[in-house]
């Protein structure tokens, strides 16, 4: 039986990540799906450091480091340059964190999506500005602690719905992925490579120092984020929504939040509010799944 995940590795052990870094698992599986004929465009983010000091790199593909706000714009330029040289096969990937996607880079992201640029944009989402000391981003969930959310209650605003924002651009392909579900993740990246036009993949990437948990629990928390319904696995292609998971047996949200120090100040009442929002979102997912 042919393995569902390619054995070849395009990321070396010599990266600079923390133990248990979800962002490194995300990159490893993404490259397995994309293959060697890929260029990765990195704005300021954890991966600016993780890739290693120039001229060396932990990635076995070309890497271009660009300013914080410009990932989608720079990737669009790289694609145009490759086409001018007659290269239509190399996949250009903008690989940005949540800060460079939800906040600082959203203007360039929206512009590239609206123009239908033939690139793949990946947001590896660790739900705060982790590279600069765990500051709140537009992706930080309500109730979660960061260095810039004073008080016991943590962040007071809900997480920005970047997936709904990207869906509103009517792009060619959109998906979510989690490192705990490696086969699903590799399949989606391999599929994205075959599609022309603007593609967006949102990967939830657990962060031990930012989320405050022991590093060996990264895969377990990634799995719980999906099993509790906080992070659903789905695809949208040609406007058709498709869930990639069993929705019938979701676990309580508390099984995910109570294993992390960043939710230390979360009250039972606030936890109930989060659960109700997750349940309402899943009612919408269920309706969309039946409609398609």
Any overview of this molecule?
This protein has 292 residues and is an alpha/beta fold. The protein has a single domain (22-291), classed as Thiamin diphosphate (ThDP)-binding fold, Pyr/PP domains (Rossmann fold), CATH 3.40.50. Helix content is 37%, strand content 14%. It has helices at residues 22-34, 46-50, 71-84, 99-103, 106-115, 162-167, 182-193, 208-211, 218-227, 254-257, 268-291; strands at residues 38-42, 63-65, 91-97, 120-125, 173-177, 199-204, 234-237, 240-243. The protein has an 8-stranded mixed β-sheet, with helices on both faces. α2 links the parallel β1 (38-42) and β2. α1 crosses α7. It is globular, with a radius of gyration of 18 Å. The chain starts with 21 loop residues before the first helix and ends with a helix. The model has no long low-confidence stretch (mean pLDDT 96).
Total number of β-strand segments? 8
Category from helices, strands and their pairing: alpha/beta
CA radius of gyration is 18 Å
Largest sheet: 8 strands, mixed
Mean pLDDT: 96
How far the N terminus sits from the C terminus, by CA atoms, comes to 32 Å
Going across the major beta sheet, what is the strand order?
A: 2-1-3-4-6-5-7-8
**CATH uppermost class:** Alpha Beta
In the predicted model, the low-confidence regions spanning at least 5 consecutive residues are: none
How big a fraction of the residues is strand?
A: 5-15%
CATH superfamily: Thiamin diphosphate (ThDP)-binding fold, Pyr/PP domains
**Shape by Cα distribution:** globular
